[in-house]
Write a structure and sequence with these properties.
Length: 108
């Protein structure tokens, strides 16, 4: 018998097995990616809350959920300076006490 495939799966069986493995790999990758994205969102949200609490403690104002509609042109430079200070604090360049002192100095 020429072309006999005795003892081996047919081409259709091999294709079905490959498709099943691919489906499992795809589903696993999707689940891992979704889990990673959810963890990153939780970390980002926690960082935003911590930043809002620090700013509220420094400025004495309650944290706001949304950004103000428009900032004055002169206040834009001060706001940018505060953002840079916050980034330096988040990066560990400034300690908490240094951060608070510099923010109070900028707001004065």
């Amino acid at each position: 018998m020429l072309g006999s495939r005795s003892g081996r799966p047919s081409l259709i069986g091999r294709a079905a097995g490959t498709a099943a493995r691919t489906a499992v790999i795809t589903k696993t990758a999707t689940a891992v990616a979704g889990s990673s994205a959810a963890k990153q969102q939780q970390k980002a949200h926690a960082a935003e809350l911590a930043h809002a609490e620090r700013m509220a403690a420094v400025g004495g104002a309650a944290p706001v959920a949304a950004a103000p509609a428009a900032a004055p042109a002169a206040g834009g430079e001060a706001l940018e300076a505060l953002r840079k200070l916050s980034a330096a604090h988040d990066a560990g360049i400034l300690t908490e006490s240094e951060f608070v002192a510099k923010v109070k100095e900028r707001l004065a």
